[in-house]
Amino acid sequence: MRKIRKGDDVVVLTGKDKGSRGSVLRVVDGKQVVVENINIARKHQKPNPQRGIAGGIVSMEMPLDISNVALFNPVKGGPDRVGFKVLEDGRKVRFFKSTGEVVDV
Question: Which residue, 57, 61, 73, 105, is the most exposed by fewest CB within 10 angstroms?
Fold first, then answer.
């Protein structure tokens, strides 16, 4: 079980986009995450008529290290650390360390 998953709302802790919020689009190898509209890079792309790809300069999201993002806590209004605990019914869930509130419902 991962602390940060696809679809989570995260805050960037370091780098050029520090303080920015976005949702996780995908997790890459369990070590990096791609966040929506964060860490944008411009890439020169060759046209490929067979696939219908136009050439030019395209902007794309690049992966960030998972240690540079933290889950957004709506109660606290900022980033928060995440832990795991097992509920009485046997489910393993994530919870916010500062408030103790369960992330997964």
Answer: 105
pLDDT tens for the chain, 105 residues long, are 799 999 999 999 999 999 999 999 999 999 999 999 999 999 999 999 999 999 999 999 999 999 999 999 999 999 999 999 999 999 999 999 999 999 987
Q: Is 1 a domain residue?
A: no
What are the backbone angles phi and psi of residue 88, rounded to the nearest 5°? -60, -30
> Which residues, in sequence order, are bridge partners of residue 71?
10, 80
Q: Which domain holds residue 54?
A: 9-76
For the chain, percent helix, then strand, then coil, each to nearest 5? 5, 50, 50
Q: How many domains in the chain?
A: 1
* Residue 48, φ and ψ in degrees, nearest 5: -135, 95
